[in-house]
Amino acid sequence: MAETLLFELATEEIPAAYQKNALADWQKRLPALIKATGLAHGTIHVFATARRIAFTVSAIADKGEDTTETLQGPAKSAALDAAGKPTPALVGFAKKAGIAPEAVSFIESPKGSYATATVTRPGKALRSALPGIIQELAGGVKFARSMRWSDLANIYARPIAGYFALYGQNEWKFEPAELQNTLLADIPFRPVRGHFILDPKPVGVPSAEAYAAALASHQIIADAAERKAQIGKLLRAAAAGEKLELIENEALLDEVNFIVERPGVVVGTFAPDFLRLPDGVILSEMNQHQRYFGMRDASGRLSNRFLIVANAMTADAAAVKNIREGNERVLRARLADGAFFYDEDLKRPLGERVDDLKQIVFHEGLGTYREKVDRMAEFASLIAGDKVPRDLLQQASRLAKADLTTALVYEFDHLQGEIGSVYAAHAGVAPQIVTAIHEHYLPRFQGDSLPQSELGALISLADKWDNALAAFVLGKEPTASQDPFAVRRQTLYIIQILVAQKIRLSLVAFIAAALKKYPAGAGDAGASLADKVLQFFKGRLATIFESEGFDKKLTRAAVFSGGDDAYDLFARASALKVIAEKDRTSFDALLAAFKRMANISKEADAKAKVEPAKFATEQEKQLYAFAEGLHKRSAVAADDLLRHYKEIFAEFAAGKPTVDDFFTHVMVNHEDAAIRTNRLALVTHTIAAVRNLLDLEQLA
Predict the structure, then answer these.
(1) Is the predicted pLDDT of residue 538 greater than 80, yes or no?
(2) 263, 325: one domain
(3) Which positions fall inside the DALR anticodon binding domain (predicted)?
(4) Is the residue at 381 inside a domain?
(5) Cα separation of 154 and 317, whole Å?
(6) Same structural domain for residues 261 and 210?
(7) Which of 110, 182, 147 is nearest to 18 (CA)?
(8) Is residue 217 within a helix (H) or strand (E), and if so which, with residue range?
């Protein structure tokens, strides 16, 4: 018989992030657990709300097929003694087969007579397997914090209120013995229920496949994806009803999806006077503290109306009024606090706060933030060269961190930069500096926007370089298991900005100059530290390119080729990837030939020069022309580096016939010493052109 199986685990309200992870974990592991039973089954569906997590398995057999197996035991000579009685070997075999020794039969085979037994094993019963599945499933979920309750041994994110199991139309109430050593031990069977306050009575579930429909008849949306879509639809409809546009917030939508199970949307308002606060402050109060959604008008201005996703009966006018007024009261108090901090902060222009940074320690041994912003100005100048006025870089750097001294940033630390840009604009600071203050924290996380303005990119790079170099100066550079200063992440962002802005920067020169800006005695600022930073940066560069799908060996050959300009190395690796993928087999063969040249060149006289007049074959002339072409192209200062390297590597790849002809028709170790010396010099000259582009050692 095959029916649909339903299992529901009812709990106290579980934090949204916990339940979202639990749902993902069940969806991932349940199919394998069901498959392991060997029972034929149909589709699997997992449901989750804040107070329940459940699954259904359609058309699953209640019992597996019986299996018949023929076991082979010891040879007859070892199974029976001289008197024909069973030996211990035969007794052990019979016990394993579950039969009496006398029931064992013997069959003849080419190797002699052996004991055999035919065993029929009953199929696994679904009911007996289910408690173990639940133990693996629910007991295996990892929560940031779990808890015990009452005097029970059970451990879960929140107390478990009960379980409900239904097979077809039959309820399965397990006996205590069936639940021993599982998460369900001492947990009662409990019928499915509706909303825990508004509709706590049992919900009739006529059959397992009707679970979602039965809850839907009580306004509960059990399916998380369906509920999320419905919440989004309600939010957009409510915003349209107010002639406003919803501020989409995927993370917040995910969170409220696991807070409510019978969603409704209520519109609230706050006093228009609070709109003088920075948008970030208002949205932070609404999104992070109260889980409200904001709206904007057609011109993009933030509205004083907001949307509440309620786990309530929004068809009841009295309930809606109560929800709206309660939430408005809470938000009003929070915005009043924010307004107080904002007004107090504005009493002092941002520029006057720069020296207050002397009171904030950057890192022990590296001084204060006041010293940090001066280093940032120096670093930005090193990166920009003469392209951006030094006084502009200095002003932007000093103001970039000034908002750390404000009350509003102390209260909303995640708004660093955004608050500073608002205060700078209020003080009449130049727009490009205002933008740079906001952008210099970008990107804040992987996938975030990068700085768009040149000044913003420069200040962001300076800030991140200082954060990364500080770790090396203090001896806190990343290890295999630790990265306390998040240097890997900082380096990733540096590379992304350099590439996006196409900023040319000599890493060797910059790192050496930058390390001199740190206090005397703050770590080893010598050449060894500079080389350590450089090698780490190049290693990260290669790792990042590899994560983007670049070939590992080719990427490292490009990155460690001797260049030290991050954007140049990116363009080189990108062009190499494009050219190599056109005909990888031929390209690898060409690289092998160049590695052969590299080995031959070890025998060459380092002082010997190529003398074209001594070429004895056409192949020598062609190889020389090929090498000269690579040398000349490599020496060109190109504006479009990506195009430049694509052209170089296209010429590089096109040289395969020339290289092949040379090795086919030319004997390098010629018996004539003068010819041999010239040919070795030619090989060395050619391989030098290749080494300008690639580190052949990385291709080993």
Answers:
(1) yes
(2) yes
(3) 591-696
(4) yes
(5) 42
(6) no
(7) 147
(8) none
Both 478 and 583 in a single domain? no
Higher pLDDT, 690 or 87: 87
Whether the model clears a pTM of 0.85, i.e. scores above it, the answer is no
Is the CA virtual torsion 569, 570, 571, 574 positive or negative? positive
Question: Of 373, 423, 427, which is closest to residue 400 (Cα–Cα)?
Answer: 373
Within a 10 A sphere around the Cβ of 343, how many other Cβ atoms? 13
361 and 461: one domain?
Answer: yes
In a domain, 658, yes or no: yes
- Reported as a single tens digit per residue, the pLDDT across 79-111 is 888 888 889 998 898 888 888 888 888 888 888
Using the structure block, give the residue that is written with the tokens 């939508």. 253
What CATH number did the domain enclosing 182 receive? Answer: 3.30.70
* Domain around 235: 224-345
Q: What is the DSSP string of 402-451?
A: GGGGSHHHHH-GGGTTHHHHHHHHHTT--HHHHHHHHHTT--SSTTPPPP
Per-residue pLDDT reduced to its tens digit, 628-674: 988 888 888 777 888 888 888 888 888 889 988 988 998 988 888 88
Pairing of strands 292-296, 302-310: antiparallel
Query: Domain for residue 565, yes or no?
Result: no
Domain count of the fold of the chain: 5
Taking the CA atoms of 534, 540, 542 and 548 in sequence, report the sign of the dihedral they define: negative
The runs of H, that is alpha helices, within 346-414 are: 369-384, 390-400, 407-411
pLDDT band at 539 (very low <50, low <70, confident <90, very high): confident
Q: Are residues 615 and 660 in the same domain?
A: yes
For residues 359 and 318, membership in a common domain is answered with: no
Domain boundary among 299, 318, 345: 345
